[in-house]
Design goal:
The complex is a heterodimer of chains A (204) and B (173).
Chain A (H helix, E strand, L loop, with lengths): L7 E9 L6 H11 L12 E7 L14 E2 L2 E10 L4 H19 L6 H18 L3 E10 L4 E4 L4 H15 L2 E4 L2 H8 L4 H8 L9
Antiparallel strand pairs in A: 1-6, 1-7, 2-4, 3-4, 4-5, 5-6
Helix pairs in contact in A: 2-3
Chain B lengths: L4 H7 L2 H15 L12 E15 L2 E8 L5 H9 L3 E11 L2 E8 L5 E5 L12 H30 L4 H13 L1
Antiparallel strand pairs in B: 1-2, 1-3, 3-4, 4-5
Classes of the chains: A alpha+beta (204), B alpha+beta (173).
């Protein structure tokens, strides 16, 4: 779900700390170093990296191509492979029968079954094309705020990990307490009172 | 800034549900002309409210959908001790309209539809569309943050007791 879609979901993060000057170069380096790279012979089921907002399948962070109106705008790409358990079961059966015929035995040990299953999954993942998922990111560096255009929890976790690896900065998720503590400009007294709050009973 | 995120996330998780429950009460019990300092903005409850009640280890969830529907069911859930978990809202400012759902858990926005900004006809238009869309999202966050600030200021003040009493009367009326 992209930021230009007709319907969107947004979750906000506070970006803790400042990054090394010059900021534009540091951000570019982080994006390039962790940009999405296509893999052909990788049996893993997931591949993650940054990509260009306006060109999801050919990341290019040249110049200030990721800057729009003083904001950093780019995308997180997560390619995932998935294979139905029924397909795995089918190929596991075929491979197990083949190995039994080759060995002349009537059974496979638990370790052999495990090895066959891993071999089958690796072989299937190698042949299976990954499904690309794109999530747009808008980073307002001046306000230390980042908008992530998804409410998907696993995508959010990938964002937090990749952001930290790329820019050496932590993302603090905005939720009721962190919003009050960080964004609302409360007085010291109000922040103290906030930390002592306990749930209200509206019906008592 | 040292913020133990996971600790505060769970310890103060109740704030999101209280905020949305208060917001429902606040919108429903305030003259629409008095919600804002001007006559250009309007806010009303949209077409979906999700309530949740936790009892022992069980979670009871009630979803109410449809325009003006289910007020009674929602109030009944509140009477049993439920809090609003998700609230769909309609916001109008001058000739523009936003519809969106706020989630109490993280104050995230979903099903967000902004005012129409036309169609992108060429690649050259994209940048201008991004700027326009971001402005529209930002406008909504200004609204949400100001409402949440109003709630938090009340929540930490002595006036909260009066608000709770008023909400109690509303729930039991």
């Amino acid at each position: 779900m992209g930021l230009l879609s007709s319907t969107v979901s947004i979750n906000r993060y506070y970006v803790e700390g400042k990054i090394e000057e010059p900021v534009l170069d540091t951000v570019k380096k982080g994006l390039v170093k962790h940009s999405f790279r296509e893999t052909v012979d990788d049996p893993s089921n997931k591949n993650t990296g940054w990509t260009s907002f306006n060109n999801h399948f050919n990341p290019n962070f040249n110049g200030s191509s990721f800057v729009i109106d003083a904001l950093f705008v780019f995308s997180l790409r997560i390619d995932k492979k998935s294979v139905s358990p029924k397909i795995i079961r089918k190929f596991f059966y075929i491979e197990a029968v083949k190995r039994l015929e080759e060995s002349g035995r009537s059974y496979l040990t638990a370790n052999e079954k495990k090895a066959v299953k891993e071999h089958v999954i690796d072989a299937l993942f190698l042949r299976m094309p990954a499904v690309p998922n794109i999530y747009d990111v808008v980073w307002n560096y001046e306000k230390a705020m980042l908008w992530f255009f998804s409410s998907n929890k696993s995508a959010s976790e990938e964002l937090e990990i990749l952001f930290s690896a790329s820019f050496n900065q932590s993302l603090i998720k905005i939720f009721p307490y962190s919003e009050a503590d960080i964004l609302l400009d409360l007085t010291e007294k109000e922040r103290d009172l906030l930390s002592f709050l306990s749930p209200t009973n509206f019906t008592g | 800034m040292m913020l133990d995120v996971s600790l505060t996330y769970y310890k103060y998780g109740f704030l999101g549900g209280e905020f949305l429950t208060w917001l429902w009460f606040y919108i429903g019990n305030t003259d629409p002309d008095n919600l804002f300092d001007n006559k250009k903005e309007f806010l009303e409850i949209g077409n979906k409210i999700v309530l949740e009640r936790k009892a022992n280890n069980d979670v009871e969830k009630v979803t109410i959908k449809g325009k003006d529907a289910g007020l009674e069911e929602g109030i009944l859930s509140l009477k049993k001790g439920a809090f609003v978990k998700e609230l769909n809202l309609l916001y109008r400012k001058e000739d523009k309209e936003w519809s969106f759902t706020v989630t109490g858990e993280n104050l995230g926005l979903s099903n967000l539809k902004t005012p129409d900004i036309g169609f992108i006809e060429s690649k050259k238009d994209i940048e201008a569309f991004v700027v326009e869309k971001i402005f529209l999202y930002e406008s909504l966050y200004i609204l949400i943050d100001s409402l949440y600030k109003k709630f938090i200021k009340l929540r930490v003040s002595a006036s909260w007791t009066t608000v709770v009493s008023d909400m109690n009367k509303w729930i039991n009326s």
